[in-house]
Design a protein that fits this description.
By secondary structure, this protein is mostly beta strands. It has a single domain, classed as SH3 type barrels (Roll). The protein contains no helices and five strands. The protein has a five-stranded antiparallel β-sheet with strand order 4-3-2-1-5, with no helix packed on it. The radius of gyration is 11 Å and the shape is globular. The termini are far apart.
Length: 62
């Protein structure tokens, strides 16, 4: 995903799983993501995808 389209608080999918963006590091092009069970991981911005079927406050597909 393009770095300028990633925002704090948005739900994304990555190789590590589903989570919410906590921070975006534009210098290193990395994204800090918090998973559903409070785990955190950093992934390259290019490896995350926004999931349009997820909404803030809801971790289920509709």
């Amino acid at each position: 995903m393009e770095l300028d389209k990633i925002a704090t608080g948005m739900w994304v999918e990555s190789s590590e799983g589903l989570g919410r963006v906590l921070a975006v590091d534009k210098r290193d092009e990395m994204v800090l993501v918090e998973g559903l069970h409070d785990e955190q991981w950093a992934v390259p911005a290019s490896s995350v995808n926004q999931d349009d079927q997820l909404h803030p406050g809801c971790d289920k597909y509709y």
